[in-house]
UniProtKB/TrEMBL annotation:
Coiled-coil zones: none
GO molecular function, one term: iron-sulfur cluster binding
Protein's UniProt name: Coenzyme F420-reducing hydrogenase delta subunit
Keywords for this protein: Iron, Iron-sulfur, Metal-binding, Oxidoreductase
Family matches, as InterPro entries: MvhD/FlpD
Transmembrane segments: none
Signal sequence, renumbered to the chain: none
Species: Bacteroides reticulotermitis
Length: 153
């Protein structure tokens, strides 16, 4: 056995709302709370603006997991963007099943600007779960799907 084998470190991309979750993640840092560094944050004006294809391209680009997080229900800066995001997530789960992508690789949550500790917990739990699932290596399925979609455009 190879004693120098390193533990798999997942690459996780987080698509977050500018007004709530991004501010909550900032609070996590300014509060000096400890959390995994495996997450790269992409800030959006609102989670309601996140498209399915962006999430699929994120997997095709090498991500092992994704976090989508925004404002709590009825606290959206844009009134109902988080409700749009939730409805999209429900539909997107069916597409993930169709493509054979384990839905546990995407975590959907609500984190407010005041919940720095909740963000740290979310990141740590997601990293642990993705680490347990192992690397996402079925990029070809996603790439084939994306190529077919682009051919129809």
């Amino acid at each position: 056995m190879n004693e120098n084998k390193t533990e798999f470190e997942p690459k996780i991309i987080a698509f977050v709302c500018n007004w709530c979750t991004y501010a909550g993640a900032d609070l996590t840092g300014t509060s000096r709370l400890k959390y995994a560094t495996n997450v790269e944050i992409v800030r959006f004006p609102c989670t309601g603006r996140i498209d399915f294809m962006l999430l699929l391209k994120t997997f095709a680009g090498g991500a092992d997991g994704i976090i989508v997080s925004g404002c709590h229900p009825n606290d959206c800066h844009y009134t109902s963007g988080n409700f749009h995001a939730r409805r999209r997530w429900i539909v997107f789960r069916g597409l993930l099943d169709f493509l054979g992508i384990d839905v546990r690789r995407i975590r959907y949550s609500w984190v407010s600007a005041a919940e720095g500790a909740k963000w740290a917990d979310l990141v740590n739990e997601t990293v642990a779960e993705i680490r347990e699932l192992g690397p996402y290596e079925e990029y070809n399925k996603v790439l084939n799907y994306l190529e077919k979609e682009e051919a129809y455009e």
